[in-house]
Amino acid sequence: MNPIEIAVKNAHRDERAARLLITICGIGAALVPFFIGGFLLLKGSDTFLIFGHSLGEFLLSGQWAPSDTAVGGGHVGAAMFLSGSLVTCGLALLISLPLSISTAIFMTEIASPRTRRLIQPAVELFTGIPSVVYGWIGLTVLIPFLRHFFIMPYGFSLLAAGCVLAVMIFPTITTMSADAMAAVPKTWREASYGLGATRWETISRIVIPAARGGIFTGVILGLARALGEALAVAMVIGQMKVFPTSLFLPASTLTTAIASDMGGAMEGGEYSAALWTMALLLFLLSFLFIFVIHRINRASQLKGRA
Amino acid sequence: MKLKKLIFIALAAVMVVGAAGCGSQQKADGDKSSSAAVSGSITGSGSSALLPLVKDAADKFKIDNQGVSISLNAGGSGTGLKQIADGSVDMGNSDVPAETKLSKDQVAKLVDHKVCVMTVATIVNPDIGQVVKSLTNQQLQDIFTAKITNWKEVGGPNEAIILVTRPQTSGTRALFKEYAINGAEESSNKSLETDNSGLLVQSVAQNKGAIGYVALPYLINDKTVSTIAINGVAPSLENTYNGTYAVWGYEHIYTNKEPKAAVKAFLDFVLSDTYGQRIEELGYGVSSKMQTKEVH
Asked: Transmembrane ranges (chain A) (predicted)?
C-alpha cells in the first residue's frame, strides 16, 4: 500500500469513529428531556392513580393539606401555587418588557457602535449572575426599601418577587429582541426614510413589527425562566400559603412550595406525590412555552416567504 | 487529528476513572486486614436538624478509626426513614418516630437509637422579648392559629404579630404542634414560611413583632432574638432534663436489627459519656440525662 492509500484509509477510519461518537452524544443528549419527562409522569401520576385525586381538585382547589403518609386521604389543591406562579411571572413581564424593548431599540437603532459595544456585554453580564445573589440582594436591599415606601406588613410580597424576576429575565428579552431588530434589513429602514417617515415612525412601524417573532421568543424564554426560578423567589415572596390577592402581601409559587417541602416529605407518600405532580405541571408548562416558540417562528418564516 | 485527540482524551478519562475505582477498592481491602479498630463504610441520610451533630460525631469518630469512611446526606426525616426501611443506607436519621411515617411491618424491622434530645424554643423579636417573658400554651395556640393577632392581647406593646413558621413536613414544626400548641394546626395562610431554621432566626430578628420557633442548637451564641418561656418555664436543657419544659423530642438514628460492626461502634461512640459533653456544647440534650420517662 502506498502512503497516500494509508492516509486515505486512516482519514476514513477517523471519520467513522468521530461520526459514531458524535451521533451517540447527540442522540443521548436529545433523549435526556424525554427521560426526565417520563420520570416526572411516572412520579406525578401517583397523585391521581394511587391516591385517587382528580385533576380538577389539583388544578382548581385551594385546599392544600396532603398527608405525609403512604395512606393518603389529604387534600392536594395546588391552585394557589399555580396562580402564585402565573401572577409573579406576569408581573415580572409587565415590569421587564418596556425596559427590555427600550434597551433593545437603544442598542440597535440609537446608540453609536461604540456605546453599543459597551452596553451589550453589560446586558449579557446580567445572565451570569447566580439567582442566589439576586435573592440575597432582594432580601437585604429590596425588602427594607419596599417596606419603607409602601404600607405593607412584611416587605415579603408578590411585588418583591416580581421585581427580582423582572431583573432576572431582562437580559433574555433584551438580547433576543436586539438580535431580531439588528436582523431587519437596512434597506427596509432606508425605504421607510425614503418615504418621508421619521425615525420613531420607522422604529415603531417597520423595525418592531418585522422583529416581532424574535421579541416573542425572547418574552417566552424569559417567562420560562421566571416560572422555573425557585431560590430567588423563595427568599423574597414570604411563602405564605394563600392565593395571590394583593401585590403587597406574601404568596407562594409552585417552585417555592416544592423546594420548601421536598426534604421533609416522605418519598412515596401522598405529600411527595403531590409535589411531584407540581413538578410535572412545571415541566408541561415549559413544554408548552417551547411549543409556542416553534409556532411563532414557523409563522414568521411563512410570512417572510410570502 | 483534533477528533483523534478528543477520542483519546475520552478514553483516557474512562481509564483514569476505572483505575481510581480499582485503587480505592484495594485500599479498603488492605485496611480491613491490617487495622485493629473497626473499618468499613457507613452511609446515613435523613433529618437536616440532626445532620450537624452526626457530622461532628463522624469527624471525631474517624480520628480513632481511620479505616472507616462515613458518608452522610441530609434530605429530610422522611427520606432517612424511607431509605433505612428499604435498606439503601445503614443509618436513617429522623426527628420523628418511625411510626409516624412508616407502616407497622417496616418499623418492626428497625431498631431505634435515641441519640440525643432536641428542645424547641419559642423565639420573638427582641422588642417583644423585653416586655413579654412568658406565654401559656393556650396563648401560644391562639397566636399560632391567628386568633390573637396583636401583642397587646397578651400583655405586650400594640404591635401586629408576625408568624414565622416551618413547612408542614418539618420535624421541628411537628414537635411544636404537639407539645406547645396542644396539637392545633397552625394557620398556614397567615404565616411566613421558611424552609431553613437559620433563615427563620434571621427573619424573626428583622421583623418587628415576629414570633417563631427553632431548635436550641440554632440559638447557641445568638443574641439577635429572645426566647419566650412557656407557662413560666424557660426553654433550656436543664428544664428539659427535669421534665418541666415539654417541647422537646428525641432525635432518632434508625438501623436495621443487626447493624454492621462499624455502624454499631459509631452508635456506641455517639451515645458515650465523652461524646455526651460535646452534644451539650452543640446545644442538644443528652438522652441518658433525661429524668422523665415520657417518650416524645
From this structure: 20-42, 76-101, 122-145, 151-173, 215-237, 273-293
Distance from the A71 Cα atom to the nearest Cα atom in chain B, whole angstroms? 9
Does pTM surpass 0.90? no
Of A18, A263, A268, nearest to B74 by CB-CB distance is A263
- B158-173 pLDDT, tens per residue? 999 999 999 888 888 9
> What 3-state DSSP class applies to B40?
strand
Lowest mean pLDDT among A213-222, A258-267, B129-138: A258-267
Instruction: Verify whether the Cβ–Cβ distance A263 to B3 is below 8 Å.
Output: no
CA–CA gap between residue B271 and residue B249 (Å, rounded):
16
Q: Hey, what domains does chain A have and what are their CATH numbers?
A: 78-264 (1.10.3720.10)
Say yes or no: B281 contacts chain A, CB-CB below 8 A.
Answer: no
Least trusted range by pLDDT, from A142-156, B30-44, B201-215: B30-44
Q: Residue B268's beta-bridge partner residues? A: none
Residue with the larger pLDDT of the pair B82 and A174: A174
Nearest by CB: A267 against B82, B167, B190: B82
- Domain positions in chain B: 42-116+251-289, 119-242
Interchain CB distance below 8 Å, A265 and B76: yes
The CATH number of domain B42-116+251-289 is 2.60.40.290: no
User: What separation in angstroms does the CA of A77 have from each of A135, A164, A271, B186, B211?
Assistant: 28, 27, 11, 18, 28
Does domain B119-242 fall into CATH 3.40.50.300? no
